[in-house]
Amino acid sequence: MKLNIVEKLSARLGLMACGLVVLGGCTAEIGRMPYDSDVKCLRQQMGSAVQLSFPIAANTCQRMSDHNFIFGSKKHPAHPLPLNLRGAPDLQKLADEYDYSYTK
Q1: Which domain of life does the protein's organism represent (predicted)?
Q2: Are 48 and 60 in the same domain?
Q3: N or C end of the chain: smaller count of CB under 10 Å?
């Protein structure tokens, strides 16, 4: 009888965990999507319900060299790539203000 209760409890906890993961994937604050441009990502992060500041949004959206693999080789460690802010003068002004590198 105790084994049956443990099985039901673990099944319910597993279902609840899966539900939370699925619901968590629907939030606007999950970060950068692979197909998003830098401008789109920044606008989404700064315009979400949380309304992140530019530095936090830029850190969330900024891509890294080595295909975002953090642990690069010792000769060429991963480093942040400049934000591509073409066609967004308002974001370029914020990048200048907070000293972020970007391409025009």
Answers
A1: Bacteria
A2: yes
A3: N
Q: What is the pLDDT along the chain (104 residues), one digit of tens a residue?
A: 455 665 666 667 666 666 655 555 544 556 677 788 999 999 988 887 777 899 999 988 888 777 655 565 666 677 788 999 999 999 999 999 999 999 88
Give the number of residues written for the chain.
104
> Distance of CA 97 to CAs 86, 90, 101, Å?
17, 11, 11
Query: Do 10 and 48 have their domain in common?
Result: no
**Signed CA dihedral, 52, 54, 55, 58: sign only:** positive
CB atoms within 10 A of CB 81: 15
Closest by CA to 31, choosing from 44, 18, 22, is 44
